[in-house]
Write a structure and sequence with these properties.
This protein is of the alpha/beta class and about 350 residues long. It has 15 helices and eleven strands. Strands 1-2-9-6-5-3-4 form a seven-stranded mixed beta sheet, with helices on both faces. Strands 7-8 form a two-stranded antiparallel ribbon. Strands 10-11 form a two-stranded antiparallel sheet. The chain is globular, with a radius of gyration of 20 Å. Bound molecules: nicotinamide-adenine-dinucleotide (NAD) and zinc ion.
Length: about 350
């Protein structure tokens, strides 16, 4: 098992990463659970079927547990499902001494984390990620749900009391979800760790390589990068914004595809390539974009926005993103691996590059 600690200005919490550790909840989380009156495990239907019983059994040694199941997928990050989760919290009799466990991928982490942030003005919660993507989302305390006008528009910062990451659960994860999650790892390497990036490029050429015996090691590295960024800037007033590398175009593509076409990570991969092109175009960098794109393509990622979306459409969505201020579109650009910065980019430049890509 690997263990690391995330520290912010207000709190610090452990991250446990290991095979089969969902069976050790009551011992690994003893200090946290012993003071609590009740636990509600919030999970989705797919994950519930596979792992909820194990977790109930494992925490039941310490305290009584209920389970709240929501449908699988991004649509559960909605007002409607949030309301149902609040109803479950009330009906299960959760009080301010209770605790929530988020058992699932990034959707469950964001939804259950937001429920914990807001139920009775905030109760603690534990992240139990079950997707590769959730190695990113489970650390850092960003929680929230979507509004029909945009993604993640309603939310709160609420750090978990602990993260317990059982890598055995990844064995049942579909390939497209492995690919989605790995994009966020690549992103961490691009923005913060050139050495890790080189290592990934040399060693990972297929999905099977991602799943291999080195997984635990590079999960720990990727989580450590995220933890360092969160430590420096918990509330995203500075360096934390660099985690949005690839996300400006990525979010627009996800939104246009109705969150059903491309996975989050696939959209981010196309967005990272786009950001490198923008960076080159503005004269900040000399990326060999073809070479970067080839590596991502070999791993099965799309390297551009699907051609059915017009550049006008995508630019309008980017302008409405919550990270855009006064209609200006801000990008995370990279001078070189490990050297990100923020830059406002005008629409004409963006339209030009988007059109070029389609030729
Ligand atoms: P997800 O939670 O929807 O999981 C993807 C799919 O895999 C779901 O259908 C789920 O049921 C299934 N699944 C989960 N674990 C499984 C397992 N072990 N075996 C088999 N199937 C399993 O999606 P995700 O990709 O994990 O997360 C995406 C979400 O994360 C987005 O909403 C995004 O906004 C959010 N996110 C949040 C942060 C943050 O800092 N809070 C960061 C990045 C992404
Ligand atoms: Zn992301």
């Amino acid at each position: 098992m690997e263990e690391l600690v995330v520290t912010t200005d207000h709190t610090s919490y452990p991250v446990f990463i290991g095979e089969g550790i969902r069976h050790q909840c009551s011992s690994l989380l003893y200090d946290i659970l012993k003071e609590r009156s009740k636990v509600l495990i919030i999970t989705d239907e797919t994950v519930a079927e596979l792992y909820a019983d194990d977790v109930v059994r494992s925490v039941s040694n310490a305290l009584s547990a209920g389970v709240c199941k929501v449908p699988s997928g991004e649509t559960s990050k909605s007002m409607d499902v949030y309301h149902k989760v609040m109803t479950a919290c009330i009906q299960e009799g959760l009080d301010r001494q209770s605790i929530i466990i988020a058992l699932g991928g990034g959707v469950i982490g964001d939804l259950a984390g937001f429920a914990a942030a807001t139920y009775m003005r905030g109760i603690p919660f534990i992240q139990m990620p079950t997707t590769l993507l959730a190695q990113d989302s489970s650390v850092g305390g960003k929680t929230g749900i979507n509004h029909e006008l945009g993604k993640n528009l309603i939310g709160a910062f609420h750090q978990p009391a602990a993260v317990l990451y059982d890598t055995e659960t990844l064995h049942t994860l579909p390939d497209k979800e492995w690919r989605s999650g790995f994009a966020e790892m690549i992103k961490h390497a691009y923005i913060k760790d050139p050495e890790f990036l080189t290592w990934l490029k040399e060693n990972v050429h297929s999905l099977e390589d991602i799943k291999d015996s080195q997984l635990l090691r590079f999960l720990k590295r990727s989580i450590a990068i995220k933890a360092e960024i969160v430590k420096e800037d918990e509330k995203e007033s500075g360096v934390r914004a660099f985690l949005n590398f690839g996300h400006t175009l990525g979010h627009a593509v996800e939104k246009e595809s109705g969150y059903g076409g491309m996975t989050h990570g696939e959209a981010v991969a196309a967005g990272m390539i786009f950001a490198m092109k923008v960076s080159n175009r503005l004269g900040y960098s000399k990326w060999d974009v073809t070479q970067e794109a080839e590596w991502l393509k070999a791993l099965g990622y799309p390297i551009e926005a699907p051609s059915q979306y017009s550049s006008h459409q995508l630019i309008e969505v980017m302008k409405n993103d919550k990270k855009a201020s006064k209609g200006n579109i801000t990008f995370v650009l990279l001078e070189k691996p490990g050297s990100p910065f923020l830059e406002t980019v005008d629409e004409r430049t963006l339209a030009h590059i988007l059109e070029e890509t389609k030729e």
